[in-house]
Amino acid sequence: MGPDDFIPVDAAQAQLGQLLFYDRILSGNRNIACSTCHHPDLGTGDGLSLGIGEGGEGLGPKRTAGTGDDRIRKRIPRNAPGLWNLGARDLTVMFHDGRLSIADTYENGFNSPAEERLPEGLDNLLAAQAIFPLVAQFEMAGNPKENEVAGAVHDRIDYAWPILTDRVRHIPAYADLFAAAYPHIETSSDITIADIANALSAFMIWEWTSFDSPFDAYLGGDSAALTAQQVAGMELFYGNAGCSACHAGSLMSDQEFHALGLPPFGPGRTRQWDPMVRDVGHMGESNRLEDAYAFRTPMLRNVALTAPYGHNGAYPTLEGIVRHHLDAEQAFEAWTPELAALPEVPWLSQIDFAVWQDSREMARQRAVLNRASVEISDAEVDAIVAFLKALTGASAQSDRLGIPDTVPSGLPVDGPIR
């Protein structure tokens, strides 16, 4: 990979997006920012299996579920994915279940949960993605009757975006920054939610584009960039272990959906008529039975920084998720709830592992474990893990813009995690 593989970014737009990314003004109750669940000190994730969104307190593994009327009502159903290389030109689909993709389904360039109501003027797929957490009840919007954003979402998804835009417009510093960064913006009234999303995407591309790993150096001709163990792991990855069957190409992802049979837990991402707590994955988007429990293949650069692993963060280590891929049936049966990074939430504890009490649902989930196992030695597993660690970029932990000290709204900023 190289610079030409990524969408170019304007520096002024990225600097504006940095402020928006860390500003709680974009959340319904002004109490959470994009950075809360995608923190640079945690590999652009949150270090949790299932996140604690709107209503929680603190950062990372120490984040708590809040107290009183403001406490969370539900865990985030899926693991917060890393933000690395989301500006790649070849990227066509996002979210674990693929509910956002480049397509002309609604004649606006995207297939998305907003359907034909998606705002006009979005620059790219990442910009389209950026506006959905803002209007997700348990992520950033809050609960109906708590604030005007959540109330608007309850009526119709696109009713909320103008409210958030209006908040930003009325902050003079933001109005000036938008006018300076975008030629088509002359006054604050010209700012739209698409402009906000485009700035957010510019920042994420600027900040978290990574193609300077030892593996990239090796591909560039530096035979000494990888250790002997890492070379052995690479050969297994692209050979007998079969990893590259899905983690293919420059993105190290086929951008397809596969049922790996990860151990289920959490509130699930239920569809309207689901009779139980579960997450059917891509089937929720496609409505095809063959897509049940299938999730998007993640890209792998900087994967060593983004624990825990899996669409629900079922495994805390690279070794754990690698072993699951090699023998899903054995790993499924050996898995224990203690492996899940779930901060204690007493009022949700009965839900966290309720799916395991439903014998029929568990039978359906076990039915996708029919993948052929791959027999390799412990030393070979270690070699694959060593190779995966060689995908970490040299500059991955040195942010280009970093965390701002303050943001124009004056609201608290998610600082470094200590």
What does this structure look like?
The chain is mostly helical and 418 residues long. The protein folds into two domains: 170 residues, Cytochrome Bc1 Complex, Chain D, domain 2, CATH 1.10.760; 176 residues, Cytochrome c-like domain (Cytochrome Bc1 Complex, Chain D, domain 2). The chain is built from 16 helices and five strands. Strand 1 and strand 2 form a beta hairpin. Helix 12 packs across helix 13 and helix 12 crosses helix 16. The model has no long low-confidence stretch (mean pLDDT 95).
Overall SS class = mainly alpha
User: What is the CATH architecture descriptor of the largest domain?
Assistant: Orthogonal Bundle
The oligomeric state of the chains shown is single chain
Q: How big a fraction of the residues is strand?
A: under 5%
CATH superfamily of the largest domain: Cytochrome c-like domain
Fraction of helical residues? 25-40%
Strand order of the largest sheet: 1-2-3
* CATH classification class of the largest domain: Mainly Alpha
| Beta strand count | 5
Biggest pleated sheet = 3 strands, antiparallel
Our count of helices gives 16
Order of helices and strands: HHEEEHHHHHHHHEHEHHHHH
